[in-house]
Amino acid sequence: MKNKPFTKRNGHTTGKKVKCHHCGKFTYSPYRHTTVPPHNMYMDPKPYVKKAEKTNRVDLIGNLKVTVNNYCNVECWQEVRSRK
Ligand SMILES: [Zn+2]
Q: Of 4, 22, 29, 43, most Cβ neighbours within 10 A?
């Protein structure tokens, strides 16, 4: 996947306001957390998860659909992670 230049990485500014997935704060430099589904491409790719809470952006990597959630910072994301 080198034909697509990824210039915006985690922790870097996006140039626009992004809403935090957890607390709702707006930030220019969100922490982007990517959620990869637990199944792999060898399994039947059923489009089952359609009701994801707030899917800001879904990128296709191979046959896997990846959900990207933006958080205001790493600490906010860790708070979400610790609750689950
Ligand atoms: Zn937050």
A: 22
Taking a C-beta distance cutoff of 8 angstroms, is the pair 12, 29 a contact? Answer: yes
Which among 42, 22, 34, 81 is positioned nearest to 60, based on CA atoms?
A: 34
- Under a CB-based contact definition with an 8 Å cutoff, are residues 19 and 70 in contact? yes
Angle at 20 between CA 25 and CA 5, to 5 degrees: 130
User: Tell me, what's the pLDDT at 22?
Assistant: 93
User: How confident is the model over 27-69, as pLDDT tens digits?
Assistant: 998 888 887 766 655 555 555 555 555 544 455 555 567 778 8
Q: Show me where the domains of the chain are located.
A: 15-40+55-84
The continuous run of DSSP H or E covering 33 comes out as: strand 31-35
User: What residues sit around ligand 1, an ion, with C-beta below 5 angstroms?
Assistant: 20, 22-23, 25, 72, 76
